[in-house]
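Follow-up to my post from last week.
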Amino acid sequence: MSWNLVKEVAEREIRTRARTKSFRIITGILVAAAILGPIVSALWPEGGDDLRQVTVGLVDVEETTQQQIMAFAEGNLDVTFQDYTGLPPAQLDQALSDGDIDVAIEGGQTLVWDRETDFEIAGLLFSVLQQQEVLVRGRMLGLDEGDIVQLLTPVQVEERFADKPGESEGVATGVAFLGLMAAFILPQAFGQLTMMSVVEEKSTRVIEVLLGHLRPRALLLGKVLGIGTMAVGQLMVVVGGLTAALLLTNTVDIPSSVWHFVPIIVVSILGGLAIYNTFFALLGSLISRQEDAAQVIMPTLLPLMAGYLVGQSAVFGDAESALVKVLTLFPLTAPMLLPVRVARDAIAPWEIALSLGLLAVGVWLLIRIAGRVYEFTLLQTGSRIGWGQVVRLSRGAALD
Amino acid sequence: MTRPRFHTMTGGLRVSGLHKRFGKVVALHGVDLEVARGQLVGFLGPNGAGKTTTMRGILGLVAMDAGSVTWDGRTMTEEDRHHIGYMPQERGLYPGMKVHEHISYIGRLAGLDRETASRRAKHWADRVGLADRGKDLVQQLSTGNQQRVQLAVALVHEPELMILDEPFAGLDPVAVSMLSDVMAEQVEKGASVVFSSHQLELVQDLAEHVTIVAGGETRATGTVADLRNRSPRRQLEIRWTGPVPAWSPPEALAQEAPPGVSIFEVPAASDPAALIAQASLAGSVSAVSFQPPGLDEVFLELVGP
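User reply:
Got it. Predicted complex:
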């Protein structure tokens, strides 16, 4: 088989498909979404302008206490004050009851709630009031102002977790999900493009001219490689845009550990594209009209859906269940489950090797089978060719 | 029935005893075809005779059950097939490709380097009358112009063997003339050209040699003149100066004729001089012609019911 011819076919697929409006528009939308997402997130950070509004009623509270509360609340609570000094206590109670204020400070030592304590507000106010009281007591004891400040300097308390989540777990889950989505969507979108390309060649009869110059398997390989390259190109542009936007906006810290498993995810996505593009091409050779595609597409959708659903359960749940493990080894579902398990660090190295090995064997076998089927179906036009007929054709029989 | 007669050929295409069965249908059972280098051969036959299957067999698109396809005396190889220019019966082009790009692409598949393919694509687009349409999409062209692209696609690699399946179908007279010229040029350059057509008058004008197939087998092959002369019948046409007499030659079959003319189908063995003498006795003869039947009639003799 001449690899030059394979290259020519691949190049034609890339040139003609990349020129289509639909491909350009979809790629543009995906890239824009990938870049704008982090930028929007950086410009309007979650909760940034949406601090919890807290209104504190004051009865005989000093100005310094108010300043102290504001200082402590900065970045956590949006505090406003209402002064009830000199007003009847019933008015304060009514304001609490009506929700006009969340809490009131009476005389610098008493917090008044409506029915129950709000611990977020209480924590803040307790700290402030305690500091104020300690300051007063220190002065009474004749302590130096500097000593008092030193005493009040917060102690740095360190934390230790018995079961702390991994530093990169959040990012890993995100990568697992993105990997799953890419492995699910790309083979579908580009596989169907491959199928339509085969059908176009059959329906326009250009296939007769092509097969005068190259063998069916070379045509199949060129098509799979060309459209697969387009898929990878589109993915790289989108992921590149997303990564650049994340780094520039500093929205998410990408842990260095992520880059260790990205290559395996990329390889499994490539394997998925190869096996599904071949599968779709094979099915495309069974029909001659684009409107018949729905009749033959089911064998590809079943494993894709199974892989996606089980993959999703593995992203957010158990990534090491028996079902997940089995489907990781099945070539048609492996491309979706490998990224998830690798990103979640829930797979042994031997499983990765075995899964990728089986995927490679699956791709090789399917290319051989599809190449064989191609030889007998590409020149057949008319109604859909059934699998029984494919077997007959491969024995040199004719269609009915 | 006239049996095939083959002359000795030193180079070119030789197809011998092709057999192909599709399930219960026997498509070919003994097709022979020869096209020497520098020869233009008309490949004739009714619908379903096996012409397209034979052409596909030569191209390796369909595996034959038996028989051989040789080029220059040896079995045709994959490499040889790169030197074939093929124009299929049902036109085959990518609708979404630009004209120049399409011709050039097929050139590269045929083994040309990028630059040569591009140069030749331009040359052939110009030659088939599409000089200013190179950047148009194929689907933007009329059917006739798409057929011109198809011809350029078949010619871009300047093949040694051209196989054209119904190349004249649907072409206007200008395009027919252009295609005829191109075919003649290729033959002049030494290419072997075989084409099928149902336009027998055109074949008679263009091709020196024809091969006629029917029912999956070769029924006759030879020069057009030879096939016509091999016919067991002749056409006798007499133009009268006066009224048409009620005269008929022996063993003759009267044909429909215009006023003042008699046309008879007579045995080939008839003596034209004797017939003219008899006719002169019956009436006033102004002109006589005694000719073998045209290719269309020979064709019907060979493949007709």
